[in-house]
Amino acid sequence: MTKEEELLKKRFAELADRSYSESRYTFTNFLNLNEQSLFYLTVKENKGIKYTIFGGITDAERVMVRFGDEAELGYEQKFPIAILSISPLAVKYSEDLSHRDYLGALMNLGIEREMLGDIIIGKNEAYIVCHETMAEFISENLIRVRNTAIKCGKVSDIPDEEKPSLVEILVQIPSNRVDAVIARVFNISRSEAASGFKSGKVFINGRLCENTSHELNEGDRVTLRGHGRFIFKEISGTSKKGKLNIKVLK
Question: What residue numbers bound the domain in which 15 lies?
Answer without folding.
Answer: 3-73
